[in-house]
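Z., the sequence and structure:
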Amino acid sequence: MRIPVTFDMLRRVNVRRDKEWNTGSVPLTTIFRATELAGEAGEVCNVVKKLHRARIGIAGGNATVNDLRDELADVIIAADLLAMAEGIDLEEAVISKFNRTSHDRGFATLLSNELTFPPPEDGMTQRAVLYTLHRDIARHEAALREKYIADGTAEHYADIIPPDAMLGMIRYAKKYIEERITTTAGDSDE
């Protein structure tokens, strides 16, 4: 079972790895972090240049989409390290900026970290969607219990996302869905 990586998880492991990596006596400054981010963004541009050059048939160094993937990951990591240096909650900042831009441009699409449910697909009632989500969450709960708690590996993940907290979120989601199923009892499940 894979757990989606969140900004909070990235911050926690960045804090831990930064202590391992930066063993010097001077904390890294915002200027260092900004320069690090710019360097990583430059590496993304260099890979894109090489990919484009290969696509149009110009000789030169080669790059792969995997190279681009790695450099984009470095940009995200470096952005979080810069945000960490300035005490910025990157998740909140991304949500706020995304929604502000949507509002300014008159777009309906907003970003949220709140528990929401997708609209029913063609032919599905809201109740059917809720049953499907409830089933999937129950499967994830069972897998989490088996893999991260029963076999004793929970300690490795505990400082990233404590298993009890994950199970608590799963229980909350299940309860919320069960309540929604009850309130949609009048829906047809045809």
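Residues 30-55 form the longest helix (26 residues). Helices lie at 7-21, 30-55, 65-85, 90-105, 126-150, 154-158, 163-183.

Let me know what you think.
H.
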